[in-house]
Design brief:
By secondary structure, the chain is of the alpha/beta class. It has two domains: 66 residues, Arc Repressor Mutant, subunit A (Orthogonal Bundle), CATH 1.10.10.10; 127 residues, no CATH class. The chain has nine helices and eight strands. The strands form two sheets. Strands 6-3-4-5-8-7 form a six-stranded mixed beta sheet, with helices on one face. Strands 1-2 form a two-stranded antiparallel ribbon. Helix 7 packs parallel to helix 9.
């Protein structure tokens, strides 16, 4: 609904003001504000005022967790993941009783997108600058010539692949995932900073095929893709893949979605 973002960017707001900024109904905005205040997530500026005149705000430090997607403390997407996690509950119960399993697709876009959003900042801010440099031989190869080629298996939303390419401008990263009918990164909007940094391709992963030769193979800790989310990838080629899958190739530029801070 954008409530936290509106409060973080607009200062203390009344329920009607919050509703107007987010395109929602004032009655439900007021009930949400009151519940969040009772829970200790929000605070009210003028508790004794009439209900429609009370002004609510995010206390210091709360906005970082709830409304700052570039913060390593950002956890708001966990709520979106939870909404997706309960979506196939009937199928989960059936699987417990009858055996079998529940495919990832049954959890829907909320689970996939929530996982991609909550992992984004870690991959962009830490993967290429802290995590991989902590492995000396790997770090050295990714910086060396001839340029390394990396296969990122289970690349999910693609932020891990992009994080590697941003951290190691020489490398070419192939991100593979087979969990969704579409693996594609949008590149509309955002302005680059004047230079390409690394190169990334996202492709369907066939369980019967081995990815092209690579110096190193990275198994992403994210594990699920986020179709159709903006990645900052600047495409130079888009072509149909197997079973209707899409492939996007291109150099990485630092855009609004790949820049941290």
């Amino acid at each position: 609904m954008g409530y936290y973002e509106a409060l973080a960017g607009g200062g203390p707001l009344t329920a009607p003001e919050l509703a107007a900024r987010t395109g929602t109904q004032a009655r439900y905005a007021r009930e949400w504000l009151e519940q969040q205040t009772v829970a200790g997530i929000l605070a009210v500026e003028n508790e004794g005022a009439p209900a429609e005149a009370r002004r609510y705000f995010l206390p210091p430090g709360h906005d970082e967790v709830l409304a700052q997607p570039d913060s390593l403390n950002y956890l708001a997407p966990l709520a979106q993941m939870l909404a997706g996690a309960v979506r196939p509950l009937d199928r989960v119960l059936q699987a417990y009783r009858q055996g079998g399993g529940v495919p990832l697709e049954a959890y829907g876009a909320d689970f996939r997108e929530g996982q991609g959003r909550v992992n984004r900042v870690m991959f962009l801010a830490q993967l290429g600058s802290e995590w991989l440099p902590a492995i000396p031989d790997l770090h050295a190869r990714l910086q060396a010539d001839p340029p390394a080629r990396v296969a990122d298996l289970g690349c999910g939303a693609g932020w891990s692949s992009i994080g590697i390419a941003l951290g190691y401008p020489k490398v070419v990263v192939d991100g593979f995932d087979s969990d969704l009918p579409v693996i594609v990164s949008e590149a509309q909007g955002g302005s680059g900073d004047g230079g390409s940094e690394g190169s990334v391709a996202f492709e369907p992963e066939s369980r019967s095929e081995t990815p092209r030769a690579a110096d190193k193979v990275s198994s992403s800790v994210e594990g699920t893709p986020q179709g159709g989310r903006r990645s900052g990838l600047q495409p130079r080629q888009r072509r149909p893949g197997a079973a209707g899958l899409a492939v996007v190739r291109g150099p990485i530029k630092r855009t609004a979605s790949t820049r941290i801070g």
